[in-house]
Amino acid sequence: MTLSSGITKTLAGTALVLALPLFAQAGEIKARERWNAQDMDVVQADVVEELKFGREVAARIIGRYGLYNDESLNRYVNLIGRAVAMSANRPELMFRFGVLDTAEINAYAAPGGYIFVTRGAIAQMQDEAELAAVLAHEVGHIAERHVVKELNIKGSEGGSAGVARLAGGATEAARATMGQIVDKAVDILFKDGYKRDDEVKADKDSVLFSTVAGYDPSALIRYFERLSALKGKTTEVLDKTHPSYDARIAWLKDAIIGEGIEPGKLKSNKDRFQETIKNSELGKK
Question: What is the DSSP secondary structure assignment for residue 232, as one 8-state letter?
């Protein structure tokens, strides 16, 4: 099985029917119009390179932790993830979501639409809106092409163009160069973190995407408040690679106010989330 088909089969799984109704609240309409008005300036050649590169990065993430062996939970995460990804203005991508088998608390986005959340992160959540918010943050990193822009991954000539194309190169030099660029992407995810402005944008995108999907956008605030009380190995990578919880909570609140959203009128789906977790392998631990 090829790398591409392996990841696709593992993460995509069975075709899902999206059964999450959208609410036409004024704040949601405003958020949707504001996002869709953006010019993402993405051409097809760039998308091809982003997908090749993203598969390599996704393989590294899976290689580090492994995927959690719970088909129903992975299907549920895909359902919620695809609901929020519908607003990402990246129709050329098929977003795929997977649960990583680690108690560490974190989530990761690989270019091309590959998104992962750890079982440790899910274990700290209390409702579906919190899961949606975390996934929406990662969707934001992909929608804004943060890693792609940072490493200049593109399909046109010039700069480091063609570096992603080296993924298909047959020579040792091509494979080595590709490996070096993938290493840089992995360092961003696990060691250095994104630029502060990128984290701000992804958090604010989370508010927009969650709202358009009908979820309470303040869910990420609740989740961060809970995580801020945790200390130890499970939050080590998250704490090292992200700004402080206080800073993130502050700009999330600003985003909600700025968009004119009334969080209390949107859903959290707490019962459905807790029932899903109860029936999953996580609920048996």
Answer: S
CA–CA separation, 133 and 147 (whole Å): 20
Whether 227 and 126 have beta carbons less than 8 Å apart is answered as: no
144 token code pair:
């804004």
| Boundaries of domain holding 241 | 22-284
Query: Domain tally for the chain?
Result: 1
Is residue 158 situated within a structural domain? yes
How do residues 265-284 score in pLDDT, each as one tens digit?
899 999 999 999 999 999 88
Does an H or E element contain 180, and which? helix 172-187
Query: Under a CB-based contact definition with an 8 Å cutoff, are residues 151 and 143 in contact?
Result: no
Question: 43: helix, coil or strand?
Answer: coil
- Assess if residue 16 is contained within a domain: no
What are the φ/ψ torsions at residue 105 (nearest 5 degrees)? -100, 110
CA-CA-CA-CA torsion sign (130, 135, 136, 138): positive
CA atoms within 13 A on the CB side of 164: 29
CA distances from 166 to 78, 151, 162 (A): 30, 14, 6
Q: What is the pLDDT of residues 228-264, one digit of tens each?
A: 888 777 778 887 889 899 999 999 999 999 988 887 7
Type of residue found at 193? G
Angle at 239 between CA 146 and CA 113, to 5 degrees: 30
Distance in angstroms (rounded) separating the CA atoms of residues 213 and 266: 9
Say what the pTM is: 0.82
With respect to residue 207, please indicate whether it lies within any of the assigned structural domains.
yes
Amino acid at 135: L
Q: CA–CA separation, 58 vs 53, rounded Å? A: 9
CA distance 119 to 106: 9
Is 117 part of any domain? yes
